[in-house]
TrEMBL record:
<keyword id="KW-0805">Transcription regulation</keyword>
<protein>
    <recommendedName>
        <fullName>Stage 0 sporulation protein A homolog</fullName>
    </recommendedName>
</protein>
<dbReference type="GO" id="GO:0000156">
    <property type="term" value="F:phosphorelay response regulator activity"/>
</dbReference>
<feature type="modified residue" description="4-aspartylphosphate">
    <location>
        <position position="51"/>
    </location>
</feature>
<feature type="domain" description="Response regulatory">
    <location>
        <begin position="3"/>
        <end position="115"/>
    </location>
</feature>
<keyword id="KW-0238">DNA-binding</keyword>
<dbReference type="InterPro" id="IPR036388">
    <property type="entry name" value="WH-like_DNA-bd_sf"/>
</dbReference>
<dbReference type="GO" id="GO:0005829">
    <property type="term" value="C:cytosol"/>
</dbReference>
<dbReference type="GO" id="GO:0032993">
    <property type="term" value="C:protein-DNA complex"/>
</dbReference>
<dbReference type="InterPro" id="IPR001867">
    <property type="entry name" value="OmpR/PhoB-type_DNA-bd"/>
</dbReference>
<keyword id="KW-0804">Transcription</keyword>
<comment type="function">
    <text>May play the central regulatory role in sporulation. It may be an element of the effector pathway responsible for the activation of sporulation genes in response to nutritional stress. Spo0A may act in concert with spo0H (a sigma factor) to control the expression of some genes that are critical to the sporulation process.</text>
</comment>
<dbReference type="InterPro" id="IPR039420">
    <property type="entry name" value="WalR-like"/>
</dbReference>
<dbReference type="InterPro" id="IPR011006">
    <property type="entry name" value="CheY-like_superfamily"/>
</dbReference>
<dbReference type="Pfam" id="PF00486">
    <property type="entry name" value="Trans_reg_C"/>
</dbReference>
<feature type="domain" description="OmpR/PhoB-type">
    <location>
        <begin position="123"/>
        <end position="219"/>
    </location>
</feature>
<keyword id="KW-0597">Phosphoprotein</keyword>
Length: 219
């Protein structure tokens, strides 16, 4: 069972989320006024669901204000198919997105996949050249410098690094890292890879290479 915080100004959406996730054994705290999020002990929640379009404080602003104090996965809800929203949300520290209207099975699959990823058994650490993965704490370092990766960025980096030299398509990365299949719109992986590269470049490392027409690999 996981504790989940759902924030949306639409009460019917919150009720749907609660009904679906309760059946999977999760506890859902519903908030329909985004300002009230700051009254919560956010470390209590294993996953946070944020609607993007809300009055006063939108999902992007909320993510920016809470991301520094919580490391749980953040799943955005968006009614727009515009990839600009998706790219912006991932850049602010979000981990995934779900398009409205969404299906019950897709919501359940997304949430359960993120929860499984958070609760899986941990091992110690892996060192590849100057880069060290602390798998128990989900942190990555270049020498003694911590690379500020988000949860999803870390998972992608770890997966590619542990399979060093092998090339994986966007579809393969998405399915393995996030734990469910997706038939379209893989822009999340492209944006995550771009963000990962920018963060490693700060430390003069460029471990992820593009294999044109196929995908990505860790060298």
């Amino acid at each position: 069972m996981a504790n989940i915080l759902a924030v949306d100004d639409d009460k019917s959406i919150l009720d749907l989320i609660e009904n679906v996730l309760n059946k999977s054994g999760h506890f859902v705290k519903k908030i329909n006024e985004p300002e009230k999020v700051f009254q919560e002990n956010l470390s209590y929640y294993h996953l946070i669901i944020l609607d993007i379009m809300m009055p006063n404080i939108d999902g992007f602003q909320l993510c920016t204000r809470i991301r520094g104090s919580v490391d749980s996965p953040i799943l955005f809800l968006t009614a727009k198919s515009d990839e600009t929203d998706i790219i912006k949300g991932l850049g602010l520290g979000g981990d995934d997105f779900l398009m409205k209207p969404f299906g019950v099975q897709e919501l359940r699959a997304r949430v359960d996949a993120h929860i499984r990823r958070e609760q899986r058994e941990k091992i110690n650490s892996v060192i590849i050249d100057n880069i060290r993965f602390s798998i128990s704490s989900k942190e990555c370092f270049v020498l003694d410098n911590k690379v500020p990766l988000t949860k999803s960025e870390y998972e992608i980096s770890e997966y590619l690094a542990l399979n060093r030299g092998k090339t994986f398509s966007k579809e393969q990365i998405f399915e393995v890292v996030f734990g469910y299949e997706r038939e379209s719109n893989l822009s999340a992986i492209v944006e995550h890879i771009k963000n990962i590269r920018a963060k490693f470049t700060q430390f003069k490392e460029e471990p992820i290479k593009t294999v044109w027409g196929i995908g990505y690999k860790w060298e």
